[in-house]
């Protein structure tokens, strides 16, 4: 009854040279980008005869790895104009010079996205139509509401504890959490149990989240006012809210519900390429003309241990014909931290992201102003993201604890539909203007549809593209709580 009441209640909507081989190559874009194939970006990789290492075949200069580019809507763009290096570019070149050699793709990615002074996410709002990409919570309030339904159902399976940590990793503008709290605000027993924790490293986004959650400062006059979360309250449902730079900083000891939407895709990945001497890690170096380039490591790197672990989890036929592989050590480590929390205190985690139910070959991409650009072009001005390896999440969670179970992945369309988004859109359509109705239908298609919307009558370059099958959902829960909705 509680679930049906939430789904059917109309609510107000929010406003709508070091011995390395040289190789060159190249949160959801909004329309007009096409569906799934565009996620595989790349250009042929070449081995340079001028930097050929001992033992490599003499014909390696002519060998290429063929990569399908047919799915690209916007070809990569380069900044060819002469310009002075940005502070981030100087910083990256300084690291490479200090090391006396190249850095891993993962380190490059981490600096580009989260460098404290010039990282892509740190000092600005990159979300929405005016930003660089659009995420599901920005598409429609229904996404956050359905995640709220999932969280409330899990809370009931947990035995309705009176105090729960509700943690969101990488909350963006705070839209998902705001819609979750607003949608569930009528269910006081649930919302009053929630201690909201936002894991966010960007000061600019922290301020934006505070505004989105309609937070106010509340003086704590108690004698033991040591918990920082008691001083900030979200007026959406009266919940205490606190911010943390990492999951480790979230206070432990309570049952915990963790939400990770489009978070794993931004974690740094290590890329490996098969060569005659075995699997070599792809690195980022500086050329003679001072631009960045990709090179291959001449010997195994520490990250090869994660590659070997990933191969141990894969079937032989799955990796037999691979020429390139991506692994995400930070994703594996984060999953194990999540699993330990859930094992110790109860609760669960919901992970929704674009990715594969298998080994990821090569997916790292750069998006600037809703267009694809070269990964090494103007670092810090474009978002970098990669497909999420969902089996790696599953195996990482199970490896560290026998007290958790992993369910999924299932498609976002299956996940949202099973939670009742169809009923929710019907309820909202009963109390809205024609313009709002069009926005609802468009948002609904983007969340659950596959490909271009068949009902669209507007400009061709603005046709809604469905995310329903490109995004996958996975849950990690404490075994004592049974199978979570809607994975039964």
UniProtKB/TrEMBL annotation:
<protein>
    <recommendedName>
        <fullName>Protein arginine methyltransferase NDUFAF7</fullName>
        <ecNumber>2.1.1.320</ecNumber>
    </recommendedName>
</protein>
<feature type="compositionally biased region" description="Basic and acidic residues">
    <location>
        <begin position="77"/>
        <end position="86"/>
    </location>
</feature>
<comment type="similarity">
    <text>Belongs to the NDUFAF7 family.</text>
</comment>
<feature type="compositionally biased region" description="Polar residues">
    <location>
        <begin position="50"/>
        <end position="67"/>
    </location>
</feature>
<dbReference type="GO" id="GO:0032981">
    <property type="term" value="P:mitochondrial respiratory chain complex I assembly"/>
</dbReference>
<dbReference type="InterPro" id="IPR029063">
    <property type="entry name" value="SAM-dependent_MTases_sf"/>
</dbReference>
<dbReference type="GO" id="GO:0032259">
    <property type="term" value="P:methylation"/>
</dbReference>
<feature type="region of interest" description="Disordered">
    <location>
        <begin position="50"/>
        <end position="86"/>
    </location>
</feature>
<keyword id="KW-0808">Transferase</keyword>
<dbReference type="GO" id="GO:0035243">
    <property type="term" value="F:protein-arginine omega-N symmetric methyltransferase activity"/>
</dbReference>
<dbReference type="GO" id="GO:0005739">
    <property type="term" value="C:mitochondrion"/>
</dbReference>
<keyword id="KW-0489">Methyltransferase</keyword>
<dbReference type="InterPro" id="IPR038375">
    <property type="entry name" value="NDUFAF7_sf"/>
</dbReference>
<dbReference type="Pfam" id="PF02636">
    <property type="entry name" value="Methyltransf_28"/>
</dbReference>
<dbReference type="InterPro" id="IPR003788">
    <property type="entry name" value="NDUFAF7"/>
</dbReference>
<comment type="function">
    <text>Arginine methyltransferase involved in the assembly or stability of mitochondrial NADH:ubiquinone oxidoreductase complex (complex I). Acts by mediating symmetric dimethylation of 'Arg-118' of NDUFS2 after it assembles into the complex I, stabilizing the early intermediate complex.</text>
</comment>
<keyword id="KW-0496">Mitochondrion</keyword>
<keyword id="KW-0809">Transit peptide</keyword>
């Amino acid at each position: 009854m509680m679930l049906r009441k939430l789904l059917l209640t109309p609510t107000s909507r929010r406003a709508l040279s070091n011995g390395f081989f040289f190789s060159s190559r190249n949160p959801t874009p909004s329309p007009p980008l096409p569906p799934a194939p565009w996620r595989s970006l790349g250009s042929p990789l070449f081995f340079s005869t001028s930097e050929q290492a001992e033992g490599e075949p003499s014909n390696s200069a002519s060998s290429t790895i063929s990569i399908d580019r047919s799915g690209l809507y916007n070809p990569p763009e380069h900044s060819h104009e002469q310009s002075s290096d940005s502070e981030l570019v100087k910083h990256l070149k300084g690291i490479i010079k200090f090391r006396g050699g190249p850095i891993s793709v993962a380190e490059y990615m981490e600096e580009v996205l989260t460098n404290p002074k010039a990282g892509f996410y740190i000092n600005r709002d990159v979300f929405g139509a005016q930003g660089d990409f659009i995420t599901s919570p920005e598409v429609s309030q229904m996404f956050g509401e359905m995640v709220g339904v999932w969280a409330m159902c899990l809370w009931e399976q947990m035995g309705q504890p009176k105090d729960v940590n509700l943690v969101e990793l990488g909350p963006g503008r705070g839209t998902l959490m705001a819609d979750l709290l607003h949608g569930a605000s009528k269910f006081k027993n649930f919302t009053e149990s929630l201690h909201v924790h936002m894991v966010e490293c960007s000061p600019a986004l922290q301020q934006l989240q505070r505004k989105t959650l309609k937070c106010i400062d509340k003086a704590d006059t108690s004698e033991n006012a040591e918990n920082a979360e008691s001083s900030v309250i979200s007026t959406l449902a009266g919940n205490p809210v606190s911010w943390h730079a990492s999951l480790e900083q979230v206070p432990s000891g309570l049952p915990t519900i963790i939400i990770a939407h489009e978070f794993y895709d931004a974690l740094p990945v290590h890329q490996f390429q098969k060569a005659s001497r075995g699997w070599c890690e792809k690195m980022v170096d500086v050329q003679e003309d001072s631009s960045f380039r990709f090179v291959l490591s001449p010997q195994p790197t520490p990250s090869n241990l994660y590659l070997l672990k990933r191969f141990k989890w894969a079937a032989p036929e799955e990796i037999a014909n691979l020429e390139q592989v991506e692994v995400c050590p930070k994703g594996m480590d984060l999953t194990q931290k999540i699993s330990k929390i859930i094992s110790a205190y109860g609760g669960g985690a919901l992970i929704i992201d674009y990715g594969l139910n298998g080994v990821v070959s090569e997916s790292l991409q750069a998006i600037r102003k809703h267009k694809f650009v070269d990964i090494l072009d103007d670092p810090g001005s474009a978002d970098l993201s990669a497909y999420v390896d969902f089996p790696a999440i599953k195996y990482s969670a199970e490896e560290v604890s026998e007290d958790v179970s992993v369910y999924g992945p299932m498609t976002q369309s299956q996940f949202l539909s099973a939670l009742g988004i169809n009923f929710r859109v019907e309820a909202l359509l009963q109390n809205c203007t024609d313009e709002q109705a069009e926005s609802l239908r468009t948002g609904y298609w983007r969340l659950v549809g596959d490909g271009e919307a068949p009902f669209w009558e507007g400009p061709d370059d603005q046709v809604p593209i469905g995310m329903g099958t490109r995004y996958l959902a996975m849950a990690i829960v404490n075994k004592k709580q049974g199978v979570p909705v809607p994975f039964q």
